[in-house]
Amino acid sequence: LDAAEPPWNQNRFEEIQVRLEPFLKLSGFDLRRVQFVPISGLTGVNIKERPLVEGDAASLASWYKGKTLLEAIDSFQPAKRNMEKPFRFIVSDLYSEGKSTVVKGRVAQGIISVGDKVSILPVGDIATVNRIDHGVTASQTEDYDVERVKVALAGDSADLALAGIDIARVSVGNVISDAAVGLRPRIKRKMQAKIIVMEELTVPIIHGSQVLMHMHCLDVPAVISNIISKMNKDGSLIQRPRVLTGGSSATVEIKLNEKTCLESFNDCRSLGRFVLRRSGDTVAYGIIENLEN
């Protein structure tokens, strides 16, 4: 906030809160647990110690009475891990190691163990997990639960060594799920989503607008195929509007250029939220409500 004009401006701090809260709420965050903390990464103001009434951050001390960054982090409540849901692992990197293909990424939900069979989507190939790495060094193994190393839970970042699949069949952005067909995410090209349009939008979004959908590690070209409804800032609802302007929220249909692993936000947050970009600028963000056949 020291880069604001003037530095440590309270109005700018409150403006950032007002603009971010709708996005955080739409993404599933409980606003009662969200904290906004003004800091300076360059000088370290309000990171460990509170700003002084005398000094460069005197103007911040005059109105901000909240926590420092470290105090806010110490007060975090552990996030709920969705271990009861079907397994989802998003691939962020991969490499070959002997006869195995090692995929790096994060467990979005569910649980996986050494020996389990998994499906690599969207190709649908089946592989076996023969090792799970949590980044534990040899010197740490004595203090680490040996059985825990054989399992990866929702929220874990881990490396999975897969046997029975060629590395050419796996790509960054692939989703690894349970091998059972009924437990896999759907692979679709069309979806209905709720979006919020960015305030700074210069060119309105219309039927047929071409965008780039960014979701976890993927960038997929897409088209706004239908605008179902629009809600203005004053709360008024318009059915089948012709355009979407900055600051409005809307329910739209989106058609992707290629089939992608998708799920509704209620079923899997990581596969159900996205950002829409155009010409390098973010124009909207949203969540998937349902998938169309």
Description:
With about 290 residues, the protein is mainly β. The chain is built from four helices and 17 strands. The strands form four sheets. A six-stranded antiparallel β-barrel has the order 1-2-7-5-4-8. It has a six-stranded antiparallel beta barrel with strand order 9-15-12-11-16-17. Strands 3-6 form a two-stranded antiparallel sheet. It is globular.
Structural class: mainly beta
Q: What's the rounded overall pLDDT mean? A: 87
Number of helices: 4
Globally, the shape reads globular
Q: Which spans of ≥5 residues are poorly predicted at pLDDT below 50?
A: none
Order of helices and strands: HHHEEEEEHEEEEEEEEEEEE
Strand content: 35-45%
Give a quick account of the main beta sheet: strands, pairing sense, barrel closure: 6 strands, antiparallel, barrel
Head-to-tail CA distance between termini = 47 Å
- Helicity, in percent? 10-25%
Name the strands of the widest sheet in spatial order: 1-2-7-5-4-8
Number of strands: 17
Radius of gyration: 22 Å
Keywords:
11% helix; 4 helices; mainly beta; globular; six-stranded antiparallel β-barrel; six-stranded antiparallel beta barrel; 293 residues; 17 strands; 41% strand
Topology readout:
Elements: H1 10-26, H2 58-61, H3 69-74, E1 88-97, E2 100-109, E3 111-113, E4 117-121, E5 125-133, H4 146-149, E6 151-153, E7 157-163, E8 175-178, E9 186-197, E10 205-206, E11 210-215, E12 218-231, E13 237-239, E14 243-244, E15 249-262, E16 273-278, E17 281-291
Antiparallel strand pairs: 1-2, 1-8, 2-7, 3-6, 4-5, 4-8, 5-7, 9-15, 9-17, 10-14, 11-12, 11-16, 12-13, 12-15, 16-17
